[in-house]
Amino acid sequence: MCPKAAHWHPARLACSIQPSSLVLLARVLLASVILLAFAACAPQQRSTGTRGGTWTATASETGSAFTMFTLPAGQGRLGSLVAVSGDDIWLTWFDEGKIGHLRPDGTVVATFPLPESHAGPYGLALGSDGAIWFTETYVPSIGRISPAGQVTEFAGLTQPATTLTQGPDGNLWFTEYSGDAIGWITPNGAVHEIPLVPGSRPGGLAFGPDGNLWVAESSRDSIARVTRGGSGTVTEYHLPKPVSTVERSPEDVVIGPDGNLWFTEHGASAIGRITPGGVITEFALPHPGSFPQGLVVGSDGNLWFAEWGANTIGRITPQGVLAEYAIPSAQGAPIGLAVGSGGALWFADTEGTYLGRLTP
Q1: 118-165: per-residue pLDDT in tens?
Q2: Is residue 3 part of a domain?
Q3: pLDDT of 30-40, one tens digit each?
Q4: Which of 15, 98, 140, 218 is the most buried (most CB within 10 A)?
Q5: What is the largest CA-CA distance in the chain?
Q6: How many domains does the chain have?
Q7: CB-CB contact of 130 with 163 (8 Å)
Q8: pLDDT tier, 248 (very low <50, low <70, confident <90, very high otherwise)
Q9: What's the Rg (C-alpha) of the chain?
Q10: What angle do CA 178, 221, 229 make, to 5 degrees?
Q11: Is residue 1 part of a domain?
């Protein structure tokens, strides 16, 4: 059974779609036939050179400013984004089945349509090979875009992958939300999987200072530590249960500058911290229903995140001091984040209306 969510989450959306829907299946199959017919003759890279409007605004904290870029209309919802050298931005257009490459001024350099337009590209990561790697919410494969623009897909997953991160071993590590598993894919495309506790619904994952993997188990309100030897030994650390019955739903996990693991709690509107020894501390956010996500470590040594339900970008220091920056757009629903040069934080809105940059 899939957990309920009040906010946009591709993995939950995919989980909620019933395979018995013949109408949806027919549409997907028809789109597949059409795309395959054109795949041989249509180039996978298409330059657009489109640029929208730009506006700036000062954040509530002195010295911080937003710069906003309007994205091309009609591309649909976004999944995630990543910033690479020179502040080039890569993002996933979830609805249209495309990967986009943008310049820092909002200009679209190129789009890469996937062979299956209903694949639902979501997670992104820059690989050790210099390529952009991505997950597909509706297809059990992981894709790669080479520096030359060639798109390759690798099958072999038991279930579709959601999040993706570069590991210290040179491989790409991923979670299978609907498959209750994590895994890794080598630069050559070989896939390996590690099962988790049934019903865990893993979100984000990160490597800890102990060399093990730490995974957010969204449906078990737990953070799991998975050893990298053999099949992987799983140890769960359950989040403290409040008096209310609100599901805490941990999602993103990153290693902080203090050597601890930090994570978002979607259901509880909080940021959490867990030590390698398993001690958990939670920091409540000011806005209930803010649904924090997109947790990253900034160049300033603090942790940054997007508050989907509050239309703000949040910051928390390793000591637990919070600050928020209201986004100067009525569109709301920010996703991301991605760390760029000069300490800039890049983000976008769920509906694909704008690309934003916050300069702390």
Answers
A1: 899 999 999 999 999 999 999 999 999 998 889 999 999 999 999 999
A2: no
A3: 333 323 332 33
A4: 218
A5: 60
A6: 1
A7: no
A8: confident
A9: 19
A10: 65
A11: no
pLDDT > 80? residue 62: no
**What does the block give as tokens for 288?**
């209930």
From the CB of residue 275, how many other CB atoms can be counted at a distance below 10 Å?
15
Amino acid identity, position 317: T
Q: Are the CB atoms for 164 and 135 separated by under 8 Å?
A: yes
Pairwise CA distance, residues 42 & 29, whole Å: 19
How many whole angstroms separate alpha carbon 180 and alpha carbon 176?
Answer: 6
How many Å apart are CA 221 and CA 359, to the nearest integer? 33
Q: Which long-range contacts (CB under 8 A, 24 or more apart) does 51-57 make?
A: 51/105, 51/106, 51/107, 51/108, 52/106, 52/354, 54/105, 54/106, 55/328, 57/328
At 242, which CATH number? 2.130.10.10
Q: Residue for token digits 């910051």?
A: 315
For residue 283, report the phi and psi dihedrals to the nearest 5 degrees. -125, 110
Classify residue 231 by its DSSP letter. T
Closest of 160, 141, 167, 166 to residue 152, by C-alpha: 141
Distance from chain centroid for Cα 97? 16
DSSP H or E run through 171: none
Query: 293 lies in which domain range?
Result: 10-359
Residue type, 344: A
Q: For 292-323, how does the pLDDT look when each residue is reduced to its tens digit (9 = 90+)?
A: 999 999 999 999 999 998 999 999 999 999 99
At residue 48, φ and ψ (nearest 5 deg) are -115, -40
The partner residues of 135 in beta bridges, in order of sequence, read 142
Query: What's the full length of the chain, in residues?
Result: 360
Q: Report pLDDT for 155.
A: 94
C-alpha–C-alpha distance, residues 277 and 293, integer Å: 24
Q: Do the domain assignments include residue 70?
A: yes
